[in-house]
Amino acid sequence: MTATPPPCSILLLAGGRGQRMGGQDKGLIPWQGKPLIAHVQAVVRPLTDDLIISCNRNQDQYRPYADQLVNDAEADFPGPLAGVLAGLAVARHPWLLVLACDAPLIDRALVLDLMRQANDQNQPAMARQAGYWQPMFSLIPCALRGDLEQAWQQGERGLQRVLHRYSVRALDYAEDDRRLSNFNSPEFLER
Predict the structure, then answer these.
(1) Residue 2 lies in a domain
(2) The domain that contains 26 carries what CATH number?
(3) Average of per-residue pLDDT across 113-140
(4) Count: domains in the chain
(5) Is residue 72, in this structure, part of any structural domain at all?
(6) What is the mean pLDDT of residues 87-103?
């Protein structure tokens, strides 16, 4: 673990189907006067010169928030691992920080906690909240790209399962830590 985080590429996952939001593109849903993606982007923008957004639709609306846009190699919204693989393919730094587009309460401290988990052993790191892993808050060494692609080719679709093939470093957070809240339903937006 490093005291000063190394340069990291940051990937914001916004490529989902948005089923719990009635099919809406979650990253573009307004909250407190701005799209959810704008809240997350405002926190991470000062921390990287390689901000990537994985989006499978509405690229023109996401473009102002990113240095690079990627989309899944396969159609039909195959899940977060597909977005991570697309991000790993273009990342310009040795580490890729993965965050969900619908977590507008994240703060700089949480992001830096994750970034500081970079290590010489190429161990991924993931937030864990009250014992539950949170793969949408992960730091992945880009050196694992080939392994993750191979897992994908073998039929694996779960980001958490793939990362747990390695000795994942846990960053433990309290159950009531709202920074890890995903606004993935209309009820969350109304709170």
Answers:
(1) no
(2) 3.90.550.10
(3) 93
(4) 1
(5) yes
(6) 95
